[in-house]
Design goal:
Nuclear Transport Factor 2, Chain: A; 27% strand; 4 helices; disordered N terminus; 5 strands
Length: 211
């Protein structure tokens, strides 16, 4: 009887040993497969790939459309920003036209071809007469949007300016032809600026002077 019990215990112990060995073998196989996959695929900690070309184009177009819409939206904030730039452009153009070299330099990018040709012709004629201008720009008293309209992608804004300057015209002998170098003069101008809202160029250009 005792011998039989020993035999049964031995069999049970062997069965448990075989089950334990099976578990170890399965774990080793699983570990081997994991290591192989890791070596082949590598580890990922998030999205590490590049956006496919077609999706890059879609994203680029979406951003471009948003930018275009924001440029087309001439709301109160856009008007305020425009007027700040218009004041700077106004001073730049006035002083460039009225200084003593009879040349348009700093203001050229701010002028349409039509206005540039008009201003440049006036300076050529002044230079031929032997005259030159002197100017001290005091400041812009006010600048207000009189009108704005959009034709297709072209936005045009009409602005009324009131400014103060000290200016005069002299001849070759420095004799005063017009103006007063000691007197502040108030000037009134109505100018029309324009830009293509779909263009990447953010600059406005002067396209017309109404007064």
């Amino acid at each position: 009887m005792l011998k039989l019990i020993n035999i049964v215990i031995t069999i049970i112990t062997m069965n448990y040993s075989f089950e334990y060995i099976d578990i170890i073998l399965l774990a080793m196989i699983a570990g081997f497969i994991f290591l192989r996959l890791r070596g082949i695929l590598g580890r990922r900690t998030g999205f590490e790939g590049k956006t496919p070309a077609q999706f890059q184009d879609v994203l680029k177009n979406v951003k471009l459309e948003k930018n275009i819409k924001s440029k087309e939206n001439f709301d109160e904030e856009a008007k305020k920003e425009f007027l700040n730039g218009a004041k700077i452009a106004y001073e730049t153009i006035i002083t460039d036209f009225s200084d003593n070299d009879n040349k348009l330099t700093n203001s050229k990018p701010l002028l349409s071809k039509k206005i540039y040709d008009q201003f440049n012709q006036a300076l050529v004629e002044r230079n031929q007469r032997g005259h030159y201008a002197e100017i001290t720009f005091i400041g812009v008293n006010s600048a207000g949007i009189k009108d704005h309209k959009k034709v297709n992608s072209i936005l045009q804004v009409t602005v009324d300016f009131v400014a103060e300057v000290i200016t005069c015209i002299r001849d070759k002998e420095k004799k005063i032809i017009s103006g007063d170098p000691e007197k502040i003069k108030k000037i009134y101008d109505t100018w029309v600026f324009s830009r293509d809202v779909k263009s990447n160029n953010p600059n406005w250009q002067l396209i017309d002077t109404l007064t």
